[in-house]
Structures
1.
Amino acid sequence: MARGFDEILRDVIAGLRTLETLRNREFLHELLLDLVELEQAWRHLDERAAALARRVAELEEKTALAGRLVEDDGALWRPGNEEPGPYCLPCWRKDRKLILLSPAPTGGQPSCSRCRHRP
Ligand SMILES: [Zn+2]
């Protein structure tokens, strides 16, 4: 596997420390500070990339899910799933949130715990 950018940067920093002499001490110190800053910026971008990858996966899952949802009786259903439904239609349409409707304690129509919708 190829070395990561952070590993390369760490090696460069370690290598530069061995080159330090009285004449180039100040220059190397500045260079090391720049490299540390660069490493922090890289870490931030790496974390951002990971967060975006998670978001893409989440959206892909929702897109795939949207194709399988069936609207019936004012609610959504996932045929063949362990929890087929009913799910809240307004929450899905407005925010792409899949909220399982909770049965009413008194035995009436189930309702959404998020928006209180009752199909
Ligand atoms: Zn709802």
Note: The helical segments are 5-18, 25-68, 89-95.
2.
Amino acid sequence: MSNTTLTKIELEARYQMREHDYDPNWDYEVREDLFTDCRAVWAQRVMDLLAARADTPFEVGHVFPADLNATNGAIAVYCSGTYNEPVVVIDLAAHSEPFAAENELYGPGEMNAAIEHTITHEIYHAIQESEGLPFTEDEAEDWNPFTRERF
Ligand SMILES: [Zn+2]
């Protein structure tokens, strides 16, 4: 059996696992008016790059801009139970210049890097859930799939 065939079987198995119909509007104030905001487009692009990797447990992922002010100060949330087609909500205002300037990791003008960091962090929680692992913040914070191998 060729590697290509194995991959196809794996992809089909993953497709069949995709059962959730989770709608983030149930839990969050989704900002449909920001779907085409450049920050939202970049966040989705990062998600697409992660989905294209062989070591992530999904082929399609979704990022929704949302107001998260009331969610324990979170700037983004991975929606539990969606790892086979992950849903991440992100507060774009929290990633704008004032946040970037105050953040220890990112300076002014590094908004895109901050968004990339946020999406990869949240997707690591999806990986943790898919493997039955606890959500640990340190590992999620350290994972950089674009520069380091994890597996
Ligand atoms: Zn986290």
Note: The chain has five helices and four strands.
